[in-house]
Amino acid sequence: MGRSPCCDKVGLKKGPWTPEEDQKLLAYIEEHGHGSWRALPSKAGLQRCGKSCRLRWTNYLRPDIKRGKFSLQEEQTIIQLHALLGNRWSAIATHLSKRTDNEIKNYWNTHLKKRLTKMGIDPITHKPKNDALLSSDGQSKTAANLSHMAQWESARLEAEARLVRESKLRSHSLQNQLGSSTFASSSSASTSLLNNNKQEAASTTEMVPIQSRSIDVLKAWNNGGWLKSNEVSNGVGDLESPTSTLSFSENAPPIMTTTTTNSGSGGILGENTMPMIEFVGSSSGCSVKEEGEQEWKGYESSNNLAEYKDGIMENSVNTFTCGLHELTMSMEGAATWPGSHESLRTNDHAIVEEGFINLLLNTNSGNHRSLSECGGDSNNDEGSGNGSDGDFYEDNKNYWNSILNLVNSSPSDSPMF
DNA sequence: AATCATAGCAACCGCATTAGG
DNA sequence: ACCTAATGCGGTTGCTATGAT
Description:
Distance between the termini: 37 Å
Number of helices: 17
Strand content: under 5%
Number of strands: 4
Number of domains: 2
Largest sheet: 2 strands, antiparallel
Radius of gyration: 22 Å
Structural class: mainly alpha
Order of helices and strands: HHHHHHHHHHHEEEEHHHHHH
Helix content: 40-55%
């Protein structure tokens, strides 16, 4: 497949945008929308290629972009999501609303990466340098992937175990609760499940006003139609998308429950033997740090790995709660579990992964202190495994929990259901 | 004051994927 | 099923500002 020519065309301007050009582009999009980017430049009277216009808009002119200094909370979110996702900037950006992937990427490359390196942390593997050196040079990336894979796999195994346990409970509750329908769901069976999970969520979190709204979450993923429950729970009413065009007129609920029935005809859920999946998450009150409230200086000056660990791998005892098993169900229907980090780039995998992330981010049930609070003044409570770091499993769990906690408490309005 | 080095960031490049005919 | 345009995304480049010598 040949690549379409773009900026090589003669007569098209390249380089920095002038205020006049910005004004033209802005005015045009405000009036007409961007429509076809290729056609836009001529219509807007710009001597630019469509791609350049699109980039300028998405990275700079879009009105919902937050610019300026990154807060500590944002920095920590980026670091942890990077540990989780690697250099998948767009995925990271979806959890930092109002920040563009380009900005995050730049910030990582110019600030965070150096900072971690300075602290003796390998920015690729997110492990202490000594560990990373074991797989030096070209192998460090592979090591990072393996690390990510191991973490994913660990979470998945835990989820699977839970799935087995809960699926049995479900079949019981299904039979018992057909018919109750306080949720706007297309199926009464799913409704009863929702209620189960709603109660479960409510029992493990602070009581939150419960609304609900059902969508086909997989379809929503396919369409890029993210719903962000965090924003609602954070008191932000409108749902903004990190991309320019998505918006939702309705508020997402503090607990977003999603069901989809399995047609059994293939697709993502094709091999799923469960009759339906549901995503139940909750987000509760969060603590938001003001920008610049805390600095990294403690970490930097001490160059102390233990402190880093305490900050990033916050000690928490909560486990993956509701949601993971539902995700696993969809995962198993969606071909295979990703065998490598890169393999996630296929659409199904991306869907699964995003769902997993969102579940991770959305399933916190009560331990939602921010890292700013916990990691910032390090060691309020002794860390994972009570100081004995030999237990890989505990470390690993705490690592993921810390990510979960971080983003749940993040002010960044991460997209959720 | 001039020169060089470095940091920061906007913008570009090119591959991958998706959508539509 | 195939082709092509459009779009998404991550890596890289190059310009500008700032600091050091």
